[in-house]
User: Which sequence fits this backbone?
């Protein structure tokens, strides 16, 4: 909010000045943008072209062997390394019913402990 009796902070409002007509617009550019200095107009391609979907090798045995090796490396990377990793892996392998059964068993134990504590403290 500004001061009611003060001056405007921006006396040069562009909308208060007269505009220009369409005929006085600058001439259109050539339509192409200029490249920065040092940039080439053609992309550099190294090596021969390939067919879409081709791996560059004609031997399918190499591709299968490479895929098998990559799968083995992924399997080795996913093996549990420590105590928490083994616990997490075991927890991921549990089914929903196993998880719910374990939670139910823990609740029963807590209720039994509370009941026995209340029986001990009964006056």
Assistant:
């Amino acid at each position: 909010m500004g001061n009611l009796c003060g001056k405007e902070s921006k006396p040069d409002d562009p909308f208060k000045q007269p505009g220009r007509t369409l005929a006085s617009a600058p001439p259109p550019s050539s339509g192409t943008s200029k490249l920065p200095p040092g940039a080439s107009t053609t992309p550099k391609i190294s090596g021969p072209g390939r067919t879409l979907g081709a791996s560059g090798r004609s031997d399918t045995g190499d591709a299968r062997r490479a895929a098998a090796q990559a799968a083995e490396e992924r399997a080795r990377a996913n093996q549990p390394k420590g105590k928490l990793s083994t616990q997490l892996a075991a927890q991921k392998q549990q089914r929903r019913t196993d998880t719910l059964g374990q939670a139910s068993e823990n609740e029963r134990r807590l209720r039994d402990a509370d009941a026995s504590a209340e029986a001990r403290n009964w006056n």
